[in-house]
Design brief:
Layout: H1 2-6, H2 10-20, H3 22-37, H4 44-53, H5 55-69, H6 77-95, H7 98-121, H8 127-145, E1 151-152, H9 155-167, E2 169-170, E3 176-177, H10 178-196, H11 198-208, H12 210-215, H13 220-246, E4 248-249, H14 258-268, H15 280-299, H16 307-330
Antiparallel strand pairs: 1-4, 2-3
Helix pairs in contact: 3-15, 5-10, 5-11, 5-13, 5-14, 5-15, 6-7, 6-8, 6-13, 7-8, 7-13, 9-13, 10-11, 11-13, 14-15, 14-16
Length: about 325
Amino acid sequence: MKNALENRDWKGVAKHLFVNYNYVFSFALLLIVGRFASDQFLSVASISNLIRSSVFIGIIALGMTLTIISGNIDLSVGSILALAAAISVSVFNSSGSVLQALLAAAVAGAGLGLINGLFVGYARMASFIVTLATMVAYRSLTVQMGQGGPLLTDNTLYFENLRWIGYGGIGGPRGLPYLAVIFIALTLIMWFVMNKTKFGRYVYAVGSNEKAAKLTGIRVTVVKVAIFTITGLLTGIAAFLYAARFGSVDVATAGRMFELDVIAAVAIGGTMMSGGRGTIQGTFFGAIIIYSIDAILSAYQVPAFVNDFIKGVLILGAVLLQKVLDRTRDE
């Protein structure tokens, strides 16, 4: 891009920007469309609500980005969220401690992700099969834990200690939501990990060419285990925030179909589904785009029943676009 600027090759600059930052253009286009749908769509409050709505999917998607870049997939994230949230609620009710509830959710999420990673890394099983199996298994444990019914936080403890995280914000309830602050902070941390550490380079190397990564001395098995553990950890944090936001966990439905939205956010954010390429910042925008689409569909009174159909089409479109852009990069 530097050479293009020096040579005044504006066509080359435009091509570089679109190929590598197409998610920014998609987000800007959605904002314009949303502005026509509602006069308040571009207000500070509306943008804050979009970010807050995308927090649970977005935080999980940060971990899923690593998983997909490495050439794997995790279908169990919705079930991990439900189980970790159920554990978090139980710990909170027994202790009244927000910190213990957070630690319980984070440890539970990391532990469940570790199980996935051990099967994928050391047993060398396909991640699709492993996480499909654990998706069902983790959901079953969650339903058993709640005996089929919702797990509720203690009402008094919730309003005294926990609710402010889910509904509060910097500058008051109408300011920047704490949930959004946490999402942005985690995005910056994961950006640093993927761009400024050896581990981040290892993740890209494993996804680009696993055999070559092994030959260069990278411990591919350890990297895979770490990736799934980190994905579980981030899902556990999202589970705690989910409990803080809603004050309860419906064991049968909490997190169900989250994997669809998470994969959509990662794909729309520009991560190659075949592995080896992707960005954390792209996933951040991808998560917000998913909920921008929901908001726009709602504003245009599109029936909610077709939302998942539209998301499915978006995933296919995003994957197709990445293939086209990948060819463009090579030209």
